[in-house]
Structures are given as structure tokens and as C-alpha cells.
Automatic annotation (TrEMBL), chain A:
Transmembrane annotation, as ranges: 31-50, 62-81, 87-112
Cytoplasm as UniProt keyword: no
Organism superkingdom: Bacteria
Family annotation (PANTHER family): HOLIN-LIKE PROTEIN CIDA, HOLIN-LIKE PROTEIN CIDA-RELATED
Pfam families: LrgA
Coiled coil: none
Membrane topology: Multi-pass membrane protein
Chief location of this protein within or outside the cell: membrane
Protein name: CidA/LrgA family protein
Subcellular location: Cell membrane
Alphabetically ordered keywords of this record: Cell membrane, Membrane, Transmembrane, Transmembrane helix
InterPro entries attached to this UniProt entry: LrgA/CidA (IPR005538)
Length: 119, 238
């Protein structure tokens, strides 16, 4: 468990360090994600099982992902004074954008799947 | 014997109180959600936020006090983003098989998420700062906040918009997909994971295993895509 968490933090640390020193426009954890994925593929190819504890820790995080959004979400209390006057329009835009994104994504997925399937 | 007010003063100087309350609010919200057979309206993230925001209002404590405790949970967004590599690795075979539909849907979806905000936001008269905080809202919180901050937006505002987007997507996805008569759970899951990151993925897992799997993949891919698309859109339009 501790080894798993340590490995996830290590890859985040490497990711953040690369981003900081190279100035690339990606967030550090995303670079860490890609590096961990590559490292896991390499380990698998070499028949090493270095990441089994990292998998356990990752499962734990992802099973409770919703919890991790709660502290940021409660931030609405602090921003409410600023947002109050625009709350209606902000909410309308969020809802419309979510529906458009859901629809565009699902349509594209299905259309391309059919196209590929027919070949 | 000390008076209750003294206990309150003592507790309010330590992160213990709000950290504990946050965890229990979450456990309570999950219990309610399970009781209501995971009805989309009984979203555990939404319930927890309402409970804790209510407690903050009642106690009159500032958000900073709450966050001093809750930051330990918030910090875990970073390693949780790295953790997405694990489902991506496990399901890589399935990812490769549906690679074309996913890449196409990823490009269309990530641009739709940002461009729709750009257009409606400009029409709604939002300021440049608010627009920047708005644009990455479909990426998972840690990533969206980092993008917003790097472009000069307010990461706290982004965080709130990300969570709201997550909840909205989780609420509308099932009725919307049913109305569109889409029965392919891979496609449905991919759409909600792309739109509503972790909160959408949690919802997808409640509905169907395949949907959850593709939602997780979409969340991972869109974390990367949003980091590339949003700076591009800001450069082009703002």
C-alpha cells in the first residue's frame, strides 16, 4: 500500500519536474500518467511485476474519486459573493456545454465505429 | 470542566475537525446514494458539497478554515490523476480495438467542450478571466486547475466549475442517451467520461461496467487533450 502510494507520488514528482524544467504546456500529473503507463508497458514486456502495489493504490484512489472533488466543490461558498450575480448564466452555459459535449462525443464515437465496421 | 465555546476555539485551530467532517459527509452521502439505488439525482459529490457548505454557513467559519483540513483530500487529486494510467494499461487491448472511434470522439469532444464555452461565454458577456477559468472544465480537477492557473485564470473558480460540470454530466447522461436511443455502453461511457471526468466515470460505473471502463479511458485521454486544446483556443481567440 505505502509502496503503491509512493510510486504514484514518484511519477507525479517526475512529471512535475519535467514540466517545470522544460516549460511544456501539460500539467505535471498528466505527464506522470503517461510516464507510468509507459513504465508499466515496459515492465510487462520485460516480465517484471514492479507495479502491482501501484495498481492496488490506484484502484483505491479511483474507487473514491468523487471524494477528492468535494474540497474544491465546497469552494463555491467562498466564491458565491462573486458568482451570485452571474449564477444563472454560468449554470445555463455549463448545462448547455455539457449536453453539447455529450451528444457530439457519442455521435462521433458511433459514426466512426460504423464507418470502420463497414470496411 | 471547560465550556463548549472553548472546545470550539481549540478544534477550529486544527485541521482535524473539517477533515473528519469531510470524510463523514462523504460516507453519509454514499450511504444515501446506495439507499436510493444510485439515482442520478442522489449524486454523492453533490450531497457532500451541500452538507459541508451548509455546515460552513451555519458555523460561520470561512472556507479557508475548512480547506485547511480538507486540503489533505484535495492534494490526492494529483496522485489520483497519475493513477488513471492503471486502467489505461489494463484495458489497453480494448482501447486499441476501438482506437479510431475513440480518437475521433476525443478530438470532437474536447473541442466541443472548449469551443461551446468560448462561443456561449462571449455571447453571455463573460470576462476574459472568467472564460479562461471556464475553458478546461471538462478535464479532471487537478488538471483543469493547473491549465487555468498556467493561463492566468483563477484555479478556485475552475475547481468549482469542474465539479459542477461533473455533477451536471452525471445527472443528464442517462436521460439524454436514452432520448438519443443510444444503447452502446462503450460510446455512452466514453461520452460521460470525456464530459464529466471522475464524477461522470463514477456515475458510469454505477450504470454498467463497460460504460465505466470507457469513461475512465475517456477521462484519461481528455486530461491530455484538454491540456493541449485549451491553450490553443486561448491563443486563437483571446
Amino acid at each position: 500500500m505505502i509502496k503503491g502510494i509512493a510510486l504514484l507520488l514518484l511519477f507525479q514528482l517526475i512529471g512535475e519536474s519535467i514540466v517545470f524544467s522544460s516549460g511544456m504546456p501539460l500539467p505535471g500529473p498528466v505527464v506522470g500518467l503517461v510516464l507510468l503507463f509507459v513504465a508499466m508497458q515496459l515492465c510487462k514486456a520485460m516480465g517484471l511485476g514492479l507495479f502491482s502495489e501501484a495498481e492496488t493504490a490506484a484502484d483505491g484512489f479511483l474507487a473514491n474519486l468523487g471524494l477528492l472533488f468535494v474540497p474544491a466543490g465546497v469552494g463555491i461558498v467562498a466564491l458565491w459573493g462573486e458568482l451570485q450575480s452571474q449564477a444563472g448564466i454560468l449554470l445555463a452555459i455549463l448545462v448547455a456545454s455539457a449536453i453539447l459535449t455529450l451528444a457530439a462525443t457519442v455521435w462521433t464515437f458511433i459514426a466512426v465505429q460504423r464507418l470502420v465496421g463497414r470496411e | 470542566m471547560k465550556r463548549p465555546a472553548e472546545l470550539w476555539v481549540y478544534l477550529s485551530t486544527s485541521p482535524l475537525l473539517w477533515l473528519t467532517l469531510t470524510l463523514f459527509a462523504w460516507l453519509f452521502a454514499v450511504a444515501i446514494s446506495t439507499r436510493l439505488k444510485r439515482h442520478p439525482l442522489a449524486n454523492p459529490v453533490l450531497i457532500s458539497i451541500v452538507l459541508l457548505a451548509g455546515a460552513l454557513r451555519l458555523s460561520g467559519e470561512p472556507y479557508e478554515k475548512f480547506f485547511a483540513g480538507a486540503q489533505y483530500i484535495h492534494f490526492l487529486l494529483g496522485p489520483a490523476t497519475v493513477a488513471i494510467a492503471v486502467p489505461l494499461f489494463r484495458q489497453w487491448r480494448q482501447v486499441k480495438r476501438a482506437l479510431l472511434p475513440m480518437v475521433a470522439a476525443l478530438v470532437v469532444g474536447s473541442f466541443t467542450a472548449a469551443l461551446s464555452i468560448m462561443l456561449m461565454g462571449a455571447w453571455g458577456g463573460l470576462s476574459r478571466d472568467v472564460l479562461i477559468a471556464f475553458l478546461p472544465k471538462s478535464a479532471t480537477a487537478g488538471v483543469a486547475m493547473a491549465i487555468s492557473e498556467s493561463l492566468g485564470g483563477n484555479p478556485s473558480l475552475t475547481a468549482v466549475l469542474v465539479v459542477l460540470t461533473g455533477i451536471i454530466g452525471a445527472l443528464v447522461v442517462t436521460p439524454l442517451m436514452n432520448a438519443m436511443r443510444i444503447r452502446d455502453y462503450a460510446a455512452r461511457g466514453f461520452a460521460v467520461g470525456l464530459t464529466s471526468h471522475g464524477i461522470g466515470t463514477a456515475r458510469a460505473f454505477d450504470v454498467d461496467q463497460t460504460a465505466g471502463l470507457f469513461a475512465g479511458i475517456a477521462m484519461a485521454l481528455n486530461a491530455i487533450a484538454t491540456s493541449l486544446v485549451v491553450p490553443l483556443i486561448v491563443r486563437l481567440f483571446l
